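Researcher: Structure for this, please.
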Amino acid sequence: MIRVPSPAKLNLFLHITGRRADGYHELQTIFQLIDLYDWLEFEPNGNQNICLDGLSNVEQTDNLIFKAAEKLKPFAQRFCGLNIHLDKHIPMGAGLGGGSSNAATTLLVLNQLWQCSLNIQQLAEIGQSLGADVPVFVYGHNAWAEGIGEQITFINLPKKQFIVLKPDCFISTQLLFSQKTLTRDSKTSKFCAYQRKPSDFGNNFEPIARSLYPEVNEAMQYLDQFGIAKLTGTGACVFVEVTPDMQTEQIVRNAPCNAYLVQSLDKSPLCDIQVVL
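Model: Predicted structure, token format:
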């Protein structure tokens, strides 16, 4: 059996800079990998089937892990059936990229296990067909992203800790995008501008999420006592950067919802993964 980590991410900011003719939105964001992990276990089962468990509320054929495996089947030079178990720790519907990360982990592991011989760029292209956030997890590096998220520039970020709160609600991304008050014309910027003044960079979805979901507003009000609270992705998770004067254990303990103390990652542990059965 092979057991590998699948890391989460934070969007340190998220701006919508326009809307394309095909309806997709152009954006700018920073992907920061963090040490909150799901774990995936892969075990050959002696038949030709892919059997997935660990996420009972999602149909197997709708799961990005299963879809990623199906995408790689045509390239397999040494195919084997697998039992895949997901040990879930990244909350769902949270804006932390758990599903995208799981898909990327599956692509990276099965590329080696099935001897598909695809390079990292080819895996990222397959990942993009599964979701806009999948390629950054395939590459496994912090990144400045543009376009619909597929234009990735790798960046170096300082090591930091974050307190992440998961409000007890599930945000509809479609509902947020449908709001007429959503800002869709933020000015494009550069990473150097972010480095000079990160506080100028927010999340265009934040005011709408706070308005529509009282749980998100409560979590942000709580974290705003200690720093500048931000929404990641379209939520529901919110986070704040840890500073030296913070009583982190107390903040986490008294949070109004599930709370996590996480460390930033320079790169995904999957960058150095070697699959051996």
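Researcher: Any notable elements?
Model: The first helix runs from residue 64 to 72. The beta strands are 2-19, 25-44, 50-53, 82-87, 143-146, 151-154, 161-166, 230-231, 238-241, 258-263.
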